[in-house]
Amino acid sequence: MKWLNEETPFPKIESEEIGFNISGKYLEVFNDVLGFAQNLTLKENKGEKTKRYNYWAALALLRGVMSSPSAGIEMIKNKLQKNVELNPEEDYSEANPLLEDEFNSGMDSDYSPSDLVNKGDLTTSEIKNLKVISEKLEELKDISEDSKAKLAADMVLKWLTDGYSPVIFCKYIATAKYIGELLSTEIRKKYKDADIQVITSEDPDELRKERINDMSKSKKRVLIATDCLSEGINLQDLFNAVLHYDLPWNPNKLEQREGRIDRYGQTNPIVKTCLIYGSNNPVDGVVLEVIIKKVKQIRKDILVSIPFPEDSKSIMDAVLHSVLLNKKYGKSVDQFAISFNDDTKIKDYKSKVTRELDAAAKREKESRSIFAQNAIKPAEIEEDLKQTDISIGDPDDVKDFVLSALQRIGVQISEFKKGYKLFTTNLPQELKGLLNGENEIKISFYSPTPEGYKYIGRNHIFVEQLCNYIMGNSIQHNINSGAARASVIRTKNVNIKTTLLLYRVRNVIEERNSKNQLVAEEMIMTGYEGSVSTKVKFLTIEESKNLLFNNIPSGNITKQSQDSFLQEEINDIKLLQTDFDKIAFERAENLVESHERFRKTVGGFKYQTVKPILPMDLMGVYILLPDKN
Q1: How confident is the model over 150-155, as a mean pLDDT?
Q2: What is the mean pLDDT of the chain?
């Protein structure tokens, strides 16, 4: 993507969908579970509440077995250990909790829904049947029996061979651990040193981040995770491929998962994604055909994702329910491929979902048209963006600061290939701990960050704390701090005494016709040539900055002379207070103008400025004396 003559690299996505046939012993067990689930759904029961719980229990069990033998076993064992009787007074909603968990933000769980299976109304013979199914599932925990796991292993090994680092997303914790064990064995047959990690919601956030960061030490790495990582933690620095091991029922999950690697900062020019599904699995079939493919096509057509329509969620529930009510799928999943396209109900549901999604796509397209930023003229805001970089620092400023600061406190850092190598031996302990305690670390100040390098940007805590360390020591007059708030030097770069001043200016801004206020704060460099006793010539901000950054001392000056010059200059600065107040008002006007340009571009409130807080805070005084030798 190009903006203001700057290239912002984003990777190309190569996606595929691969079906697998449930076969062999797994097919026999799956047919048993499908038949069991259908019988449970079709049972004559005492009331509507019991029927709904039976349907949810059947669907939960079926989804668990679809995910992995381990997830199915976990649900069945819970049921065998405790057969929960329904409480007539229990709060009850007709909404399918499996879909509520999947579609409602903040509710998604990677624990298997054993509580729903537990509430299924089972007879003694059905309990015995479940025990037999559980024993059969135990025999399937092998890659030779599990065609889904075999497909995943083949895909991951191919990606590793091609130089990719994949993330495998699973629905349940039990499945993630199961796949972790199987794939570790298969992968290490070829790559003995591969780092394979399983991360689920059982780990707290900080531990998840720590374990993922530690994977940077390995060239071959595979992360197996549940949807606890589909939001929040960005993975683009270490991973560039996503395998959807479990087909999500919410199509937005696909984008959330892939968005962990398909984002700014991804250094690989191509990212891979693969969705695997059961070709002869009736539930995967309806989800894929009725929901996923349609949503993906809309995303391809209008280039954005759409929120899943609420009505479509209830239709989705009806589709799943119809599968469990249709006995022709229960004879054998082999019948599914033949029956699916001829099923009148499925066709009807598919049409309803299509209409809902098409309507949502139309609304999204119209909304984006209304709020489109086609009217933005880059030239109008380019100067504001440049001023922002000047105020907060661009990557070059960050690099210059870090290199200079580290050099001043005696820390070794040197150019190394695509970035720098930082040796942390002499770092103060409070700073060393921010870099994971490593003795050597490769860093880069630019994004996308080269593989194997740690990105150090303006907002990185190391930069913040390094700044605090330098400033704190300079304020305490520590001569080893490498920085000072006042100085007097001789230099050949000036022909007349020049004083540079660093000010902090604060403006109170409020919305027009409102009492809401904001405080805007910035640092500005200004200065002047000459002395108040004669006549001073004021410098622009840019001239002042250039003088500060490009001057090299060319001669010594005694401590007594330094003190004398500084004391005299501070007295002169007080006499120029009115002139510096004018600068504060000019900056305030510039700030209001910038807000007005922003408002015209994206909409919002009009602003007016309240008088700047005066006097401005004087943060630094730097006197340059001409060296005429």
Answers
A1: 96
A2: 82
**Cβ neighbours around 519 below 10 Å, total:** 10
Question: Which of the four pLDDT bands, split at 50, 70 and 90, describes residue 336?
Answer: very low
Q: Which whole-number Å values give the CA distances from 2 to 8, 237, 271, 374, 382, in the listed order? A: 6, 22, 20, 15, 14
- Which H or E element spans position 519? strand 517-529
Element (H, E) at 367: helix 344-370
Residues 6+ apart with CB under 8 A from 392: 458
DSSP string, 200-244: -TTS-HHHHHHHHHHGGG-SSEEEEEEGGGSSSS--TTT--EEEE
Global confidence as pTM: 0.68
Domain locations along the chain: 381-475, 486-626
Of 275, 265, 258, the residue nearest 238 (C-alpha): 265
And the tokens for 589?
């006007």
DSSP 8-state secondary structure symbol assigned to residue 449: P
Whether the predicted pLDDT of 434 surpasses 70:
yes
pLDDT at 18: 93
Question: Under DSSP, is residue 422 helix (H, G, I), strand (E, B) or coil?
Answer: strand
Residue 206 above 70 pLDDT?
Answer: yes
CB neighbours (10 Å) of residue 205?
11
* Residue 604 pLDDT > 80: no
Q: Is 31 exposed, middle or buried (0-12, 13-18, 19+ CB in 10 A)?
A: middle
State the Cα–Cα distance between residues 133 and 117, nearest whole angstrom.
Answer: 14
Q: How is 525-562 classified by DSSP, letter by letter?
A: EEEEES-TTS--EEEPHHHHHHHHHT----B---HHHH
What is the rounded CA–CA span in Å between residue 257 and residue 235?
Answer: 10
Averaged pLDDT, 506-527:
79
Take residue 515 and report the two structure tokens written for it.
């009492």
Percent of the chain with pLDDT over 70: 77
Among 97-106, 449-458, 465-474, 500-509, which is the least confidently predicted range? 97-106
What's the average model confidence in pLDDT over 371-381?
56
Alpha-helical segments (H) within 219-309: 252-258, 282-286, 293-302
> Is there a contact between 235 and 211 (Cβ–Cβ < 8 Å)?
no
Q: Taking CA 176 as the corner, what is the angle to CA 172 and CA 73, rounded to the nearest 5 degrees?
A: 60
